[in-house]
Design brief:
The structure holds two protein chains of two kinds. By secondary structure, chain A is α+β, with helices and mostly antiparallel strands. Chain A contains two helices and three strands. In chain B, strands 2-1-3-4-11-10-9-6-7 form a nine-stranded mixed beta sheet, with helices on both faces. Chain B has a two-stranded antiparallel sheet with strand order 5-8. In chain B, helix 1 links the parallel strand 1 and strand 2. Chain B is globular, with a radius of gyration of 16 Å. Classes of the chains: A alpha+beta, B alpha/beta.
Chain lengths: ~80, ~220
């Protein structure tokens, strides 16, 4: 089984990289991009039957820093 | 005083740290990250700067899971001293020994220069060689030094006098200009600028000497 973990900076945490991407889109002529937030997707290749609670622990302990990041697990 | 300097793959300030500690009179041992315990009788653990594990995932995140990191957490829990500089500060926040997190610099650039810091408190073994309000010049060299912490914790840090150093010109966007913070027992210090790069005339400045002498002095009088 596979799972995707989406890690994003929490709302309210300034994302300077996303802001730089927004500026770059504007300079390419893409008007109306009002905000960009940049995160990451981590693809996990897991033994079948791995419980979601285990994936949750992986996120809490390592994959996300919950001081500044939120995460969402998507089992494929 | 007996000090251990932790070495991760990608550490690059470990030897500078050892030189600074030895110059202040400490007996220094280097400890590889795969070791699960610290040598007996260690008083201070120094977590040096660098790019441990290539900064993969997040700066310091993988190092915080190394076998030695649990030993460092245990050392701190027993009231031992811990100094984390630059990547070492990032590792200490990732282990939870210090609050907050270090994000990408607000201006997105890697900043490498000597920066003016204000000593905010002299009430710690690390800063007792200074007076609160003193200005010191320490080199900084990082891409991810933008300190952030939630408003409640910031209020706690301020209320408990745990902000050790602040930037005079906030080069990286850190909240409340914070360059270094102390743990609640004041024996763990994390800071982004490098005091160990300011301990010799050849470095261009010696403002960091007081930090290391103060630390070693704790044990000279004990």
């Amino acid at each position: 089984m596979k799972a995707h973990v989406h890690v994003m900076l929490k709302n309210g945490v300034l994302d300077p990289q996303g802001e730089a991407v927004r500026h770059a889109l504007g300079s390419l002529g893409f008007d109306g991009v009002e905000g960009v937030r940049q995160g990451k997707v981590i693809e996990l290749d897991l033994a079948d039957g791995t419980p979601e609670t285990t994936i949750e622990q992986m996120c809490q302990k390592l994959l996300a820093n919950t001081v500044i990041e939120s995460y969402r697990v998507e089992v494929l | 005083m007996r000090a251990a300097v932790i070495v991760f793959p990608g550490s690059n300030c470990d030897r500078d740290m050892a030189v600074a500690l030895r110059a202040a009179g400490a007996d220094v041992q280097m400890v590889w990250h795969k070791d699960a315990s610290l040598p007996d009788g260690i008083d201070l653990v120094a977590v040096p700067g660098g790019f441990s594990f290539g900064d993969y995932l997040r700066c310091g995140a993988i190092a915080a899971q190394s076998p030695i990191s649990q030993a460092v957490v245990g050392h701190a829990a027993r009231g031992g001293y811990v100094l984390g500089v630059c990547n070492g500060f990032q590792v200490l926040t990732e282990t939870g020994l210090l609050p907050g997190a270090l994000m990408r610099n607000a201006g997105l650039k890697f900043i490498c220069k000597t920066t003016d810091l204000k000593v905010e408190t002299s009430a710690s073994a690390f800063t007792e060689g200074y007076n609160a309000g003193d200005m010191v010049g320490f080199p900084m060299a990082h891409h991810d030094g933008n300190y952030t912490v939630d408003p409640e914790t910031l209020a706690t840090l301020r209320g408990e006098d745990r902000i050790a150093f602040t930037y005079s010109d906030n080069p990286n966007g850190s909240i409340a200009d914070i360059a270094g913070v102390l743990s609640d027992n004041r024996r763990v210090l994390g800071m982004m600028p490098h005091p160990e790069r300011a301990v010799d005339d050849g470095h261009g400045g010696t403002d960091g000497q007081a930090l290391f002498r103060g630390l070693v002095g704790q044990f000279a009088t004990a």
